[in-house]
Design brief:
The chain has 61 residues and is mainly alpha-helical. It has two helices and no strands. It is globular.
Amino acid sequence: SAVYDSVVPELRKRPAIKAIVHFDTKRDNQGDRDISIDSTPASLAAFKKLAANPIFNVKLS
């Protein structure tokens, strides 16, 4: 969940970033790491908090 907590501060430091991608998977290329948003209850809570941040409320023209 610390990874999700770091996203908004990093985006604020880098206003030129216009998009981010999250790769959600139960198994990585080594087959042993679950990097899905719901891998733990804390991870899911942190992701939901991140997704609700107003920084993601953008208007497309």
